[in-house]
Amino acid sequence: MPSKKLNLRKRYELLTRGMGWETTHQKMDDVFPYDTFEGIKITDWDKWEDPFRLTMDAYWKFQAEKERKLYAVIDSFAQNNGQTNLADASYLSAIKLFITGVTPIEYAAHRGFAHLGRHFRGDGARIACQMQAIDELRHQQTQVHTISHYNKHFDGLHDPFHQFDRVWYLSVPKAFSEDALSAGPFEFITSISFAFEYVLTNLLFVPFMSGAAYNGDMATVTFGFSAQSDESRHMTLGLEIIKFMLEQHEDNLPIVQRWMDKHFWRAYRLLALVATMQDYMLTNSPMSWKEAWDVYFVENGGALFEDLSRYGLRMPKYHELATAEADHISHQVWSVFCSLGNATGFHTFLPTEEKMAWLSEKYPDTFDKYYRPRFEYWAKQQAEGTFEFQKGLPQLCQVCQVPMVFTEVQTDPMQISYRVTEHGGDKYHFCSDGCKDIFEYEPEKYVQAWLPVHQIYQGNCGGATIPEVLEWYKFSPDDTGDYIGSRDHARWQEWKGTDAMVKQA
Amino acid sequence: MSYEVTIEPLGVTIEVEEDQNILDAALRQGVYLPHACGHGLCGTCKVDVLEGDVEIGDEASPFALLDFERDEGKCLTCCAKPESDLVIEADVEEEPDAANIPVRDFTGKVVKIEKLTPRIVGVFLEIEGDEVEFQAGQYANLHIPGLDTPRPFSMAQSPNEKTILEFDVALIPGGEGTTWIHNELKVGDTLELSAPYGHFFLRTSDDKPMAFFGGGSGLASPKSMVLDLLESGDTREVILYQGARNLEELYYKDLFEELEAKHDNFTYVPGLSGPDIEPEWEGATGYIHEVAKEHMKGKFEGYRAYMCGPPMMIDACITMLMRARLFEKDMFMEKFFSAADAEAESKKSPLFRNI
User: What was the ipTM of the complex prediction?
Assistant: First the structure.
């Protein structure tokens, strides 16, 4: 046997700890001004357990090889015209929503972790955040590079970052990330690393990666694998930070509980977009939103909260409502998009007969009763040439910014769920008790929300007509509207000579 | 056919069957290795292969185990199968207090069977011409005639006693092994056994005070541990919480009261949970985690806890201790599973490593 050497933890500590120091020219509180004002008490940063042990040297080596592999796949996908092997060109609507709605969140996460990588007092936590900051930037870049191939052949993929800052439904992910970014460092990491990366990440990755695989999109599958090999580090960081806060001081418990309640609900509302992508936008869906929710939240999340309950934490508030809503939200959100398809950056389409049969099977208690009649009615109108997109703009929830479309699923699923509160003499409207609670705890934060509908009516979005607003979004007329009859659709028919999308009779 | 895999820096050796992955074998043999996804995607279970050959396994994702890492001799334990005996180095903590005593086979002769309570017997086995080295808290596998798999029982005597081993055996209704011991085993019989097993042992390399929790025949390990500490002259504070349903089931009470009188640093806190508590009982009542919480006024910060007993008791103690601010790295436990308990195990999250 070789002579005894230091174990990995010791070696990593020697490489990473002690890189910081107690400052003397400036007060530590002035050097690290952000990590105390949230009320989180840290008595000993040295108790931080590194959630992973990766040195910069090894990190570059790993990521370089992952990049080589990914870019080899992207190149061969491009050379072989991989886009022609998709299940259907309407699948691209999911990719368009992903590149405009999710990829910019990766970039926002990069900014947040870079900030934490400077501002946590403990050097172990700083190093972990610095690595994650680079990961997030890499995810954003590889997604852009992978999806850019589709930009050569399809509409709606040309300006995701510009659109993220302006478009009405993209204010949902934008408001989510900026809520976290504008909070303190511990709240940011609870939101992104715990609520989003840990509790809800599988709900994003499963539909996206296996959805891509089910629809012939091997380039997207590959960046999914490449990103997922980083996610394990992100998830362990999420768990470590929660344990660290709870073990450091008993006063941290109520603060952490409040953040879990808030960010569970924030992240869950954001995932309404994923739910609709999974059930409606994928030509072939590997599993329904409800099935994914049952496995990844009810079962796995339940086991996690069971373990967390030992610290005195309880399940996030309104989790029962989220589970009850799993039968409804994908249908409700797709209805919104279909009725406002003239103002979306991706094409909308009514579910085919085959898709509706699948939805009936997956949602036996709700689809036929509440949602099928609506889609059949619209299909009939389309066939008769009387279908029109909505003329007005929807009311938005002040917190999650999703149009007010969710219903009272526990009492009357046909009744829109409205909540209202007053602050400073003004009324504010919400989609749920969850969003209303978040507002009422920090009203001064959420009265500043940039609500796209209000901004349009105030004249801040390019003009008073839909074409003017769409131009301000940098949507061309070819980006919006029904898939059937679009340029994407025509191109697909030209390539394939057939059409998987059965036109509604 | 199986291979021996030595895990550094622990120095522990496990047996891995042909066609079994290293992670599965390690976890089954009580050795924790880091892991997360369990099917080759995340890379959390990556280790260095220092000696020997492995089959990396097709499931290992090219993004989780990169080409240069394969060349450097790394593998993912959740997918890798040994093709020879191996030495691997994993990202695990060394245990400065682990003696890593190799397992050996012994033959013991029954010299005494003592009825400790209406449902627990003490079986005393003499090892003739040999000595069993073990750490207090470890267990032996007893081979019971007619049963395919051996049954684990903790050594209840002090580890300074190496020739006469004591096993406290509770009768489990419908349990084949314990029924045989209670009904068939006689003084003068011989039994085959192998020992020592388990990662439940005293961490004496720091000076934190210790709290022991024993329930039912799970008292065996804490008893051995307390005896070991007191015999070695250790002066730290030691508390033993012993749970039983009633006075009849509260065995070795006299022994611990005697030790408490003799040693200033030792406190003995028995608690009875009922329902049929004898009227003469004047001590604490309630489940042992409640008794301990009351005794320490809900504060266990700074202590280390050792728990042994049925899974329900350990579960309740863990929650009580965490709320009393004693966390995972200061907890050690040995669950006494019956076959029924093992089936009832619920889904686990990766929040804790050893709980």
Answer: 0.82
